[in-house]
Amino acid sequence: MRIATWNVNSVRARLPLVSAFLEKHQPDVLVLQEIKGEDDTFPRAAFEGQGYHAEVFGQKAYNGVAILSREKPYNVLRGLPGDPPDTQARYLEVTIGGVRIASLYVPNGNPLDSEKYTFKLAWMDRLTARARVLLATEEPVLLAGDFNVIPTAKDVDDPSGWEHDALYAPPVRAAFRALVNLGYTDALRTLHPDDPRLFTFWDYKARSWERDAGIRIDHVLLSPEAADRLTEAHVDRAWRDEPQASDHAPVIVELSCWALR
DNA sequence: ATGGTTGTTCCACAA
Asked: What's the predicted TM-score (pTM) here?
């Protein structure tokens, strides 16, 4: 089972690239973040024409997550339990082929010491509570998306440039670590323990891509039942080099697939 | 410390 995650920074602006990605890699599941539009603006017909179901949780202009899949998704959950009534579209969870899969987009949280920062920490607390519930099911679970967290100094080209940023703040990194330490496996880092350039995001500004001044903030976390089946994980950097690229590259993982249902 | 870029939308705001 091939599963990919990609922060596309507007699915409408990125439709040609996303379609090319599906065509090339034929993933069983592609989870998207920052689709940046309401559900009725999602290019559903284009993806259905390529043989994919689309589950969408969007909002106007900002945020928005979606899950494309070959098989029909079931038991759809929109938003995190405990979200405020004016919830931002940042979390979508479905079951596909016996695997519980979440597409998530953690708040950016900048600047530090703002309401956005406290909202990020509160959101991560709700995510951790949800992750604990999912672990208890003892089913294969995959939490994938843009976590907006640089886990360690190994995950950033130049740590000094991020010292005062909400993606690298110690409490944010501690919250991510606590989530992983519930019992999840960081698929990318586990399979590439010593790669010093395992990045998924390069800012549009300051020629970051050309300098490979990247960070690793897009993650795939696996429950033990999913981690048992992990055979492959990598960043597909080529999509960051395309014309009209997103500022994120997709992450692709493979789970060996037998009798998951 | 500042400025650098992209997308959505309507004008700044978010990233």
From this structure: 0.97
- The C1' atom of B7 and the CA atom of A178 lie apart, in whole Å, by 33
SS3 A38: coil
Q: Residue A191: CA atoms inside 13 Å, Cβ hemisphere, count? A: 20
In percent, how much of chain A has pLDDT > 70?
98
Rounded-to-integer distance, Cα A23 and Cα A117, Å? 38
Return the closest nucleotide (C1') to the Cα of A88: B14
The closest of A36, A41, A39 to A10, measured between CA atoms, is A36
Task: Tell me which DSSP letter residue A154 carries.
Answer: G
Given a cut of 90, whether residue A191 has pLDDT beyond it is yes
Report the distance from CA of residue A229 to the C1' of nucleotide B9 in Å, as an integer: 44
Could you give the angle at the alpha carbon of A65 between the alpha carbons of A155 and A169, nearest 5°?
30
pLDDT value of position A258: 64
Domains of chain A: 2-255 (3.60.10.10)
